[in-house]
Amino acid sequence: MKKMIILTLTCFLIACSEDVQHEPIEEKEVHESTPITNDEEVEPSLDDQISHEEISETSLIDSEEVFQVQTLSIESPFDAEGNIPNVYTDFEIVDELMDDDGRIYFALDEQPIRSIISSHDENMIHVTNYSDAIIEIVEAQAYTLDEELIEEAYKFFINNPPAELLGTDPNEYRTWEEATNLERALIQSVYLIGPLLNKLSLIVNYELYDHDSLPTLLEELEKIGSPTALIPAPQSLLDYQLYDNIASVQMMWLN
Hints:
Blueprint: H1 2-17, H2 23-33, H3 46-49, H4 52-58, E1 72-73, E2 87-89, H5 90-97, E3 113-117, E4 125-129, E5 134-136, E6 141-143, H6 147-158, H7 181-205, H8 214-224, E7 229-230, H9 237-254
């Protein structure tokens, strides 16, 4: 589980930095340490070679569809009166629906959003996601990968470990089937928003703040960080730690 947490954070860093060029920094170091005479021809830096307009036109495609995160439309969790019809107490859902591995899971077509009444205070009701995807409950959209991409996304994580896990046998990681709902949701959502983070990184690095795609990029990222985008409920001790970390990031995201 700890490895999964570290890999998730690593994936964010990879997604932010992938396809971003750093040659101008290296060239600056060479120019500062090596005297240049008037007879020498100086290779133009990357910033000189590629104009602001060229970057805008060639590196970023002006199509809103490219900058939209893939989501899956699901049945609304709300009934005609605006309530969530599937209601349990926290003890009932454990007794009736938890499997032998301590997991409660509903597929996206099984109404995974449930209302859980606290056994300590019946007036306290938690709207809870028991799927393995982040779900935007107002728009009824799930951040889920196509089935054929699941293995690709999982391998991306275990094949791009942080430095402290380099050389780790892939068999030491838990399989996709063994991962918790929360871990699966993170793998899928990070893989889905990775391309957007790459584009946003390019915009920031080249200060293309007037680019037409920026509002769309920010809107898509705000959606997945919205309070109505429900993260799957934690179901293990380390899940709770991970869930708290995500909730903290989500609050900073909104601020």
